[in-house]
Structure formats: C-alpha cells, structure tokens
Protein 1
Amino acid sequence: MSFVSINEYINSLDENAKKYGFDFENFMNTEFPQIVPKICFAMPMWWAGPKMYNGYVAVSAAKKHYSIHFHDENYLYKLKEALPNCTFGKRCINVKYGDEHAISIVKQAVSQYLNNIL
C-alpha cells in the first residue's frame, strides 16, 4: 500500500499500533520540529539531512510490535545490552507494544542519535 502522509500511514494501523504510532510521531515533532517527516519505503521517516544517507530514523508497525529503524546499524549494537527483551533486525529494533521501559530507552537513543548527526 502506498501512503501519502504520516497520518494516513498511522490511521491505517490497528488501534494498538495506532496508539504507539501517534506517540512516536508526537515525540519526534516535539524533539525535532525542524525535521519534516516523509513517507519513504512505505513508512514514516525523519531524515537528518537532504539525503537519506545523511542519517534517518523511521517507524513501522507490525502485529505485536513496532520497529524503529536507524540509518546506522552499528548504533543498534549499543542498544542490545540495554534492551534484552527487544529483538533486532537489520537496522531496526523491535519493541513490543506496552513495553514502556523499552520505549523510553529507544526514545532516548533516537534523541542521542539524531542530536549527534544534526
């Protein structure tokens, strides 16, 4: 499915995923109002520069978790110790819905990551 806006993407999700999608979007809008999100690869992305390879954070939803994607795969290795209940994919961390502790740590990591490259 092709999405035009972040709201369209989030509104297409089930209620549980929608809650966390809007939460992450609000977090990004509050912490990084200067970054205009866009849909890329069918998911919401926040680019740190004019090109995707300058660095990005993205969010996508699944049935039991949502994923936060980072441009820098090595950055995720630092999070593995702090988040033993999460699973990791290529350039992403999968956070179970309701795991507020992990969500808090991931938001801190997103802030650190983007602040280091902006």
Protein 2
Amino acid sequence: MNRKRKRNTSLFIIMIISISSIFPRLKAKATTVEDTILYYQEYQTRFEEIEQSEDIEPNGYQVLEEQVFPVMMESFGEEELMLVPAIERRWHRLALFLVDKQGKVLYKENQLETNHSTKGEMLQPVEDIASIAFADVNRDGMTDIILITHCKKRLDNKQMFSYKVGDVLFQKEEGFYRDWRISDKINRFSMNKSANLIISFVRDGRSCEFLYTATTLEELLSHGFVIEEEQCYTRNFEKLGNLKVVPGTFQISAYNMFMVYLVNEQGDIVWSFQPMGDYDSLYSLKGINGRDVDGDGMKDLVILARYSMEGPKGEPEISSRCAIYYQRTGGFEIDTAFEDYYHCTEEDTMEELIVKIREYWGWQVKG
C-alpha cells in the first residue's frame, strides 16, 4: 500500500471515530429527522472526500466491477475515461464516478433518482445496476448517460418487491445535469424498462403517460391505443353499473404496454388496471373474466396473460401471471395474497384459475 492510500485510509478511520464521538446517540437506523440530517451530513462528507479511484472503497463504497465502462465524453476532452458506479454499503445509495487514466476523479454524482426511491429516508432499496447506456438523447451533440437500477423493498405483508428506476444524466459543458421532471415521468409511467424505451420517450417524444391520464376511450384511441376486440365485453358491476371491459396495448420501442379499462356507456373511463406489474411487455393475452371470485356478491376482474421480461443476461423470459382485482364498495382492490399462494403456469386456463381462486377463498359455486 502506498503512502497516499495509507493516508486516505487513516483519515477515513479518524473521521469515523470523530463522528462516532460527536454523535454517540445515533443508532443503526435513522429514526428521527435529526438523525437523518446527521447521517446525511456524514454520508456527504465521505462522498466529498473521494478524489481518486483508490478513495472509493475506503470511504464505504463497493464498486460494481461488471458495470465499469470506458467512455468518451465531449466536455472532458479526447481522453478515454472510465465510468465507475459504486453503491454505498451502509445506506445502499448509488454514486457514479468519471475517472481518468491516472485514477483522478474528474466528476462524481450521487444525486440520482434511485437514491430518492424511499422519500425522506437515508436507507434506500438500491440493489444493483440493470443497465447503463450512452446516447445523445436531447440532440445537442453531447453524449448522455441512461441509467437503470434494480431496487428491492419489503411490502407491508413482508413480501419482497422488485422494480426498476430509470434516470438520465444530460451532459453539459462542465459535467452533467438531471431534469427531475423527466426522471419522474420515466418512472411514474413505467418507461423505465430499458434504455431504448427511455430514449424513445426522451429523444423521440413517445410517451405512455396518456395510458394513465386519459379520461375517455376516445382519448386513448387518438394516441394509438389498440383494443383487443375479442376480449371486450359488457358486465353489470353492481354499484358501478353497466361497464365495458376494454383491454388493449400501446407499442413503444419494442414493448407492448398492456392496460385494461372499464368504460361507461358515455365513453368515460371509470377505472383502469395495469396487470403487467413489473414485467416488460405483453406476450399474449389468455383471457379476462368478470365474475365474483371472493364470495362477497360483487363482480371482480381476473386477467390471465403471459408477459416477457429481460433476464439476468439480457435474454427474454416469458412468464404467466394472473392479476385479480376485487370489487369493493368504492372501486377495486388488487390481490396480493392469491398470487403469492399460487404461481401460474403456461398450462393454466381461466376456468381452472377461477376454481382455484374460489377454493382459496373457501367457497365454490357453479357458473
């Protein structure tokens, strides 16, 4: 170990000891606003200490070696640089570093969308990087960074939930900047599934936003929504009245974004469903059934389909999913219990699933 590494390591140890003596009341988890502020100050201090690539790990970060890439960035000259992503071990926050051949950190960033997945908390659900891509997405002649991370958090029922977070760092004359409004839409409207999908939105203006904000069927159709006509039908949904079940897709990049709507006789959207969950694209729709499955006397909606998702090595994986929406007095509630109890297979049929769901709820009727 050279003198500089020894010095940096010593400084790091001294800093941690100093912080521990100043804030002895801090616990392993930030439980108050004051604790969160103090933890964030300590976290930022360590981040600001990183000036060389050899400073990254001693300051509490784990470098994601498989996601280190050589890059050419216009605002940093003609020298090839290394993009080095790293996750802060304690708080699971991601940071990006641009490093030259001598190991000097020319640029670093930790104000990323994925670091705000859990608002107001230090500990974040960042697990890994799903994708890093480079493209000029705002057409200014400079290379931008498209970043997608894997996050995982525990739901109230203790089940682990995995999802992606997309982000774009736009290159400028001296470094990069983020537009939080763009990042918000990328993630709020499920356009975070791949770099190509993000590019389609940011560069080409193709957006899924209307799928979530449209108020009429006419508005959906005007934006290119394609109805699955053979699966359309009308049901009496008790207090909601006669409604038409309208499933369909919108293609953006290589993905078929699947949604289901309940539309009244005037063409207004009364309710919308996104049965894809965290899957990337609809592969095939096997059926949609509107009937009472939990025994409360009100019709529910059961959607059986096959979806595609990118595997660990980029290969497509096809899975079956049954999404159940239980009708309640004020609308619909998505199932979280049966899906955990029973995992669909390619061989499952709608009628077989209806029987299984009703058996799960402890009742059985004909028809």
